[in-house]
Amino acid sequence: MTATTERSSAEVGKARLRKEDRHLVTGRSRFTDNMVLPGMLHLAMVRSPYAHAKITAVDTAAAKSSPGVMAVLTGADVAGEQGSLPNAWPITPDQKAPAHGAIAVDEVAFAGEVVAVIVARTAAAARDAVERVDVSYDELPVVMDLEEAFTDKVLAHTSLESNKSATWVFDSAEAGTGSSVQDAIDSAEVLIERTFYQQRLIPAFMEPRSTVVDPTGEQITMWTATQIPHILRLMLALTLGIPESKVRVIAPDVGGGFGGKLQVTPEEVITVLAARHTGKPCKYTETRSESLQAGHHGRAQVQRLKLSAKRDGTVTGLSVNLLADMGAYLGLVTSGIPILGAFMYNSIYKFPAYRFECNNIFTNKTWTDAYRGAGRPEATFAIERLMDELATELNMDPLAVREKNWIRHEEFPFATVAGLEYDTGNYEAATAKAVDLFDYQGMRAEQKRRRDANDPVQLGIGVSTFTEMCGLAPSRVLGSLSYGAGGWEHAQVRVLPTGNIEVVTGSSAHGQGHETAWSQLVADRLGVPFENVEVLHGDTQISQRGLDTYGSRSLTVGGMAVLAAADKVIEKAKVVAAHMMEASEEDIEFSAGSFNVKGTDQSTSLGEIALATFAAHNLPDGFEPNLDSDATFDPSNFSYPHGTHLAAIEVDTETGHVGILKYVCVDDVGVVVNPMLVEGQVHGGLAQGIAQALYEEAVHDDAGTLVTGSFVDYLVPSAPDLPHYITGRTETPATSNQLGAKGVGEAGTIASTPAIVNGVLDAVRHLGVKDIKMPCTPSRVWHALQDAKTTGGVR
Amino acid sequence: MIPSAFDYAAPATVEEALGLLAAADAAGDDVKVLAGGQSLLPVMKLRMADPSMVVDLGRIAGLNGVTDSGDSLLIGAMTPHHVVATDPLIAQHVPLLAQAAATVADPQVRHRGTFGGALVHADPAGDLPAPVLAAGATFLISGPGGQRSVDAADFFQGYFTTAVEEGEILTGIRVPKYTGWGSHYEKFTRVAQQWSIVAVAALVRVEAGTITEARIGLTNMASTPLRAAAVEAALAGGPATADAIAAAAAHAAEGTDPASDLNGDAAYRAHLAQVLTKRAVLAAVGLQAGA
């Protein structure tokens, strides 16, 4: 561990209110659907009601003659120009994937797939004409269940010989990062074998996806509700064969994403095609039903696990065998999501043997892809559930089992069995603080009291520790994993003649608060007032380089680029300062916005230098008259936030209802720029993780129809359903970036799901319940309790 | 979320509304009555309902409000849920209705949605039918042939089906006063804003420690709200004690026919009905706070 940045700062560490909020909360926002262009046409999609079928005919005549309709495009109409939607992460050289046209041409592979698009003068006219398109289908057998799909008895695509897309294996013995899992299992004193189910989740961002395309002139301009304007621009160019220079992508205000807007969507491509065919600006805004049905989903894995240990609680090895549901197609990073988890199953522990095998499998559902945490929540859930199972088996306290196995703070940096190098961490400190805030012993006493009294409302204590790899990502590492791009981020810091600062960032925010945080960073670094910093982002014509926002990368990668660019500004300004004060450059010291000549009282400010540089009347010979600076930062390592979460769970044994009595989390996200933003990220993350544990599940029927097709059935919790969170922090700075920050976007989501489920089971295990699938609905909990009475508790 | 095109009329009187319904019927129009619209508009936007004409009762004077008529209260069909939830007459004489109305959806819906609208919609998971049934209300219906009244026991006929015929309008609901009775509405959901998985409405009169009469309504235990007759019979004349109430509540699932869905199967609902009946009656007699 090393000390980090000098903390002379006034801004970093301050709970600044968000700059972004005034316009958002006063309705002066501009989301994509607010865009109105002259002559703009509106799109509505004709979607397949079948999960798997041949398209035998598409009759558009009635729709084309429908009032206000300007065009109807089918897959056949655009087959020659629509290309195939990109998958940027072929995890193996022999990865299989079906062609994925934005509009299905001759076969549909999930219910909700687009088979035609209506282009009309009004949104209502477009919607009306949808019902006038007559599509003839020959139904094909569907395969919905992941384990059934693995058997290949029914194929999700007639064009593929198997439902298997790829198999990816990591073995610590082969990689040289550890020993053989088979040996560990063969010599295990205790072997815990479990299968866990990661249900399908729907990102359920607040703003439905929306796209406007203006084809005016030579250039295509797209406004779209995306997390990834830069990647989207490149991918649109590659997919549609348009020069990249002719595509401008703008992400205006974007209302949440959670990975759900980390995608190149069929609807974005279709909107370009519609604009190209009509020569008019076109808008498509999905309905909530379409968003739930046809946007990409997350999780959807079966985890078959073997954990070997000694009877003293020392874990000796872990074998992970995954089935990962791709859905019907491979989206942008679909195939890589389980791989992001592969490095995290060992979590904070130092067991010596690890094997991970993942089979990526196609089914007839909308495809899966990134969803908050993306592979890492699944991994953490598995290991943290197993640690509780081991504790139960050995009759140990779940915290004691964890402590027995975790990496001690003095052992960092630590080379993990999965091949990563954890730079820093202090699991002891975070856990001790959480135990204290939770009153762990007091809660255990209350639990015992209720058990002894046979209280109808039993108490369980859920434990979860976690770490994750954030700050995606070192480009070389991505290259070694066959990802199609790097992981750097770009920034530009511009000094205006008035001394005000413009920061251009490639990390485009969609609710995180980058404008506020980046302003704090730059205000400190350049010694200018917070209010004098303007942050520009989300437009590829303004922010020309960037790799966007996902994977808790913004501060640790994008923020570092901002700081590096600011440092270059200071270096340039020193040259001018030396010239202005007739001193030598080496004698110029910079602090708090002021350039001083060492050992004198001579000084000048950044503002004065900015004006002098703008005027350019008297600059050093050969000095380019501007202070603006660019920087591109490629991290040397991931960052590894960690934390300990404790949940007191009440289970009403009469109804099966699960309540959260107390929730404590202590997260170590390294150095914090804005505690309020961090708190907000933690709260939102907890809500999403709790939602997986208790509420949310995308359910399809046997025919492939999404049963949870509206928020009536897809239960997203709201404020009354969630507890008061008790949050704490420890601060162990990262060494992979100069600030010592680690990333916080996914922390709450990762740790809370296993904490809740461990708590539910801890409440009812003594009544004979062994496991409950997520979400732990009242019905499932009650049935588990009934089964325990009658069959001894296996469910 | 754009409905099909439809004609819209907002009559000023019941007579005018009935005339519009009759004319639409004669013209072969598929007409829907809009009484708040918190259920109708969503299904129209989803195009699960496709009326060619909508008759909005929102501008008819005299259908909105609660009046005291001696032994009973008259609740206008267009009275919004939030009025039912907060009206002093209802609080005094039938607080069960206020409590149930306060559990409907969210504040926006409670200000737009109406008591009569929800009753005619007759969603088996809706929160108003069971209390109204338990209370033995009378439904006042106007139609081409004049006014008629229907007892609550005959009003609810099936999924989303009531005694209100095409061409008719529900104008009011007469609810007997239960002044001095204990009551409770026990609703069970997975998240705060949700239709009932199961709910139980209890009206209980206790005299000197004995339950003299109990009226129990069940929400979402069949295609219509049900009276838990066996529970009522078991409670009547018995002591208002936890043991007696629990024993009586064990009959709650008798004669029910609950559905199975994502929130629970029929067996779970049958069990919930018993637990929630016990809790509702306990709360109604003041032995235990309801959830």
Automatic annotation (TrEMBL), chain A:
<dbReference type="InterPro" id="IPR000674">
    <property type="entry name" value="Ald_Oxase/Xan_DH_a/b"/>
</dbReference>
<dbReference type="InterPro" id="IPR036856">
    <property type="entry name" value="Ald_Oxase/Xan_DH_a/b_sf"/>
</dbReference>
<feature type="domain" description="Aldehyde oxidase/xanthine dehydrogenase a/b hammerhead">
    <location>
        <begin position="26"/>
        <end position="141"/>
    </location>
</feature>
<dbReference type="Pfam" id="PF02738">
    <property type="entry name" value="MoCoBD_1"/>
</dbReference>
<dbReference type="Pfam" id="PF20256">
    <property type="entry name" value="MoCoBD_2"/>
</dbReference>
<keyword id="KW-0560">Oxidoreductase</keyword>
<dbReference type="InterPro" id="IPR016208">
    <property type="entry name" value="Ald_Oxase/xanthine_DH-like"/>
</dbReference>
<dbReference type="InterPro" id="IPR046867">
    <property type="entry name" value="AldOxase/xan_DH_MoCoBD2"/>
</dbReference>
<dbReference type="Pfam" id="PF01315">
    <property type="entry name" value="Ald_Xan_dh_C"/>
</dbReference>
<dbReference type="InterPro" id="IPR037165">
    <property type="entry name" value="AldOxase/xan_DH_Mopterin-bd_sf"/>
</dbReference>
<keyword id="KW-0500">Molybdenum</keyword>
<dbReference type="GO" id="GO:0005506">
    <property type="term" value="F:iron ion binding"/>
</dbReference>
<protein>
    <submittedName>
        <fullName>Xanthine dehydrogenase family protein molybdopterin-binding subunit</fullName>
    </submittedName>
</protein>
<dbReference type="InterPro" id="IPR008274">
    <property type="entry name" value="AldOxase/xan_DH_MoCoBD1"/>
</dbReference>
<dbReference type="GO" id="GO:0016491">
    <property type="term" value="F:oxidoreductase activity"/>
</dbReference>
Automatic annotation (TrEMBL), chain B:
<dbReference type="InterPro" id="IPR036318">
    <property type="entry name" value="FAD-bd_PCMH-like_sf"/>
</dbReference>
<dbReference type="InterPro" id="IPR002346">
    <property type="entry name" value="Mopterin_DH_FAD-bd"/>
</dbReference>
<feature type="domain" description="FAD-binding PCMH-type">
    <location>
        <begin position="1"/>
        <end position="180"/>
    </location>
</feature>
<protein>
    <submittedName>
        <fullName>Xanthine dehydrogenase family protein subunit M</fullName>
    </submittedName>
</protein>
<dbReference type="Pfam" id="PF03450">
    <property type="entry name" value="CO_deh_flav_C"/>
</dbReference>
<dbReference type="InterPro" id="IPR051312">
    <property type="entry name" value="Diverse_Substr_Oxidored"/>
</dbReference>
<dbReference type="InterPro" id="IPR036683">
    <property type="entry name" value="CO_DH_flav_C_dom_sf"/>
</dbReference>
<dbReference type="InterPro" id="IPR016167">
    <property type="entry name" value="FAD-bd_PCMH_sub1"/>
</dbReference>
<dbReference type="GO" id="GO:0016491">
    <property type="term" value="F:oxidoreductase activity"/>
</dbReference>
<dbReference type="InterPro" id="IPR016169">
    <property type="entry name" value="FAD-bd_PCMH_sub2"/>
</dbReference>
<dbReference type="InterPro" id="IPR016166">
    <property type="entry name" value="FAD-bd_PCMH"/>
</dbReference>
<dbReference type="Pfam" id="PF00941">
    <property type="entry name" value="FAD_binding_5"/>
</dbReference>
<dbReference type="GO" id="GO:0071949">
    <property type="term" value="F:FAD binding"/>
</dbReference>
<dbReference type="InterPro" id="IPR005107">
    <property type="entry name" value="CO_DH_flav_C"/>
</dbReference>
<keyword id="KW-0274">FAD</keyword>
<keyword id="KW-0560">Oxidoreductase</keyword>
<keyword id="KW-0285">Flavoprotein</keyword>
